Amino acid sequence: MITIPITQAHKELTLKYAPGQDLGGYSNLDKSDLGKSSRLGFQHTGIYGELAWHMFRRGNTIKLVKILEEKFATLRPTKKGDGGYDDDITHNGTTRLIDIKSSHIVDEDQIPKLNLVIPDREYHEHMIYVAAFTIGNSKEDRLNIDRVVLAGWCPNEQVKDRWRYDDKKRAVRVPNLRDMSSLKSIFEPIIGSE
Questions:
Q1: What does pTM read for this prediction?
Q2: Span between the terminal Cα atoms of the chain, in Å
């Protein structure tokens, strides 16, 4: 697992971009989700997960900001979602999209008991899913978090089981995810060049 500390600058970036995450695509939040937090709270959680990924991959948020700005400019007018695109990796001539799946928790010790959860409509071929957990002091406050833990990753081919709490979602247990360092070896040579 990789821990990314959250700075004040990260909080400001999240505060700026989270409200714009309503791109016009289909919302995956149902009533039980919205009972846990507001739509904006979920958007904060998602941006923090993406931010942690870019800090892990590139050591900065430059590419994240470019991706978010491009999504706002191209997807909002068409009222379409992003198809799970948060980044991409090309390795040995094959490109896979990266989709960061973020959850907010208050107890980091629970991570090994948790799952990477993927709603059916967010399952895509040629995708790599990364489990991100935002850690905060309150279940309700999803903006003021201290750190994000990137717990592991898996290719879409590994996503086979149904989540026991909701049969419209798939899940991979955190202990069954691949270590982040194995993914880092694919993109390590490009750090700093983007």
A1: 0.81
A2: 24
